[in-house]
Amino acid sequence: MDFQIVEVFKRSVTAELVSDRVFAQDAEFDVYINGEKSLRTDRNVFSVMGLLPDTRYTMKVEASDGSFAEKEFVTEHESVLLDVKEFGAKGDGKTPDTAAIQAAISCCPKDGTVYLPEGDYYCTPLFLKSNMTLWIGEDASILGDTDRNHYPVLPGMTRTTDEKSEYNLGTWEGNPLDSFASLVTAVDAENLDIVGPGTIDGNAQNSDWWKDVKIKRIAWRPNDLFLARCKKVRVQNVKVQNSPCWTVHPYYSDDLAFLNLYIHNPSDSPNTDGLDPESCNGVRILGTVISVGDDCIAIKSGKYYMSMKHHKVTENVVIRNCRFERGHGSVTVGSEIAGGVKNVRVSQCIFDGTDRGLRIKTRRGRGERSVLDDILFENIDMSGVHMPFTVNMFYFCDPDGHTDFVQNQEPAPVNEMTPAIGTISGRGINCTGASACMLCAMGLPESPIGRLDFEDIKVAFLPEGERVPERPVMMDNFDEMSGRSIYAKNVKELVLKNVEIAGSADKEPELIGVEKKVMEGVKYAG
Asked: Is 397 in a helix, a strand, or coil?
């Protein structure tokens, strides 16, 4: 048994087993700190809390068969620990605690920690800053105020004084629009840590955030956690739940780590994506469990205006040893991706009961900078995922989503509004309980999908009587499917190697406008 230290904090550490097992081991193992048992778990990524700053530790990980590995680490320096209750916070779930906690944050010196002990802290948005740690302790929660009139607004775009540029704060679905500040907000912060094991609770179920969601009321809905133009931010072992909208939203930020989070929203909550990195570089999501009312993870890079004026590709994204339990898509790319997405690696994850597994969605109008390329899914277990792989270049989002410009399936001129998809790959993926289709891909006739490459894939469909017909891609004039194996239209190259399909209604792929196909070891059974 071997492991690696992923990140060391002031009072905690996160480690990851060196193993190809998906998400967890078959049996629990023990974690010792300086010879004392600290944790028993089966999870590949685990966090040990309750350490002291500026201290050398030895971590030992021991399997049930007696095999073990040891590593040394030193916790980070902490200048001071500030308890918010000493600043007047009550933590009784009803007294407004924003001012007291914000005072502690404002007074926190470099390398200091603001600590929330046990209690429910009723708050409007809190604004974090650089070089600090927010420690939400055990049985502590930041509980969102239910009155939107108490929330400050982040203006979408403000002209700079010299009128040569513009300053962006608020964002809504890929555009610079006025939005409420999020319950926990950081703007232009660096070297920031947010650690648990406590909770950030948007409390949206007790407010009106989930009512009339398409109507702007004062401003657009906030997130639970919003990171704007931040660098070196780590979020560890925090529960984030009941968000008014997208739950965790990193925006134009770099060098981010999300470790052992649990993100949960009700299944019927609108637009409550789990974790949406938008125009970010260097994102690691490890050991995280997400169950929400929309996409579990949605990788984005804004709409056309932001791409033209503030272009930034989302790139270098690693998602590993995670579990996605419910949602529209397990890992989605799009649809607000005008800036492009590249170098995404998703591995050793469980997709359990989501509508779609790998989900790519774009459309005309995202623009020529919207290039999606080098996206790889490998070593994935899918269970009860209706549609394991979908790629859609006719996604009918936005006010003009149903117009002829977006939905016409005849070739359109290639111009500055035309998006592109490069290579999407899947390897070593096992899918059980598929329903509508295994792979459904719809490229644009004027901009076909570059390459779909799937190798070592096993898919087993539900029995016919248990399948419910569904439309795998959200576009107009596209029929529902049930038990379909592979449907691909407008693809430059389709590569299928060692693909086993059991229980499908058809016995061969349906390929339309596929310029080149490589099919080796494709087997249908049942």
From this structure: coil
